[in-house]
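hey can u run this one w/ BIS(adenosine)-5'-pentaphosphate bound, need the structure tokens asap thx
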Amino acid sequence: MKQRLLFLGPPGAGKGTQAQHLAESRGLLHLSTGDLLRGEVAAGTPLGQEAEAVMARGELVSDALVRAIVRSRLEQQAQAGGGGWLLDGFPRNVAQADALAALLQELGQQIELVVLMELDDAVLVQRLLARGRADDNESVIRHRLEVYRQQTEPLIAYYRERDLLAPVEAAGSVDAIAERIAAVIG
Ligand code: AP5
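ok here u go:
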């Protein structure tokens, strides 16, 4: 089974839902940069204060900030003996992907598969409006989708060129999608 995984896809594709399920069932570390940033916001830390307004607008928080968060978690895990991990919401642009590659080289680790969750915009928007998180109103959702197309979508070609990309249809029930993901990660 592949156990060093990235989950890539537009907002609302179900990355967090599937990543959490998979991490629990297979004993992997689940690192969601969105969840970690929301934790910092809720705790009112300086990092959270810096990130809050940017997240509310649906833009990307600075690369340096998210890179530091991911580095500390992956280093901690490596020092504790290593293991599998699942990155959800990171990397989000080519600079973050290059930084991740450099970090993994330092740690002597490799990405084994990038799961690309694909779904129509209309369904994404419906799912997010039904959830109603602070950044789930119609205009911010549209902006998050634009940011995804401009900054994150280039990672599809980036990981395809590295022969790591596994596209998965993200429509249907949570269980049906989990089965499709299980089939590609083995
Ligand atoms: P982040 O938290 O990563 O949000 P996102 O990518 O916009 O993703 P979502 O959480 O909205 O969607 P998801 O694909 O995880 O779907 P989910 O499972 O939740 O990022 C938020 C913000 O943080 C960013 O805008 C940015 O500001 C900042 N940020 C985060 N990472 C960053 C980075 N690396 N660099 C810079 N900034 C960063 O599901 C969505 C909803 O659909 C849920 O209600 C769920 O219950 C429902 N659902 C899931 N699956 C199904 C299904 N099969 N059928 C019906 N409903 C479903």
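The pocket of BIS(adenosine)-5'-pentaphosphate is lined by residues 9, 11-17, 33-34, 37, 54-55, 58-61, 66, 89-90, 92, 96, 127-128, 131, 144, 173-174, 177 (CB under 6 Å). anyway lmk if its weird
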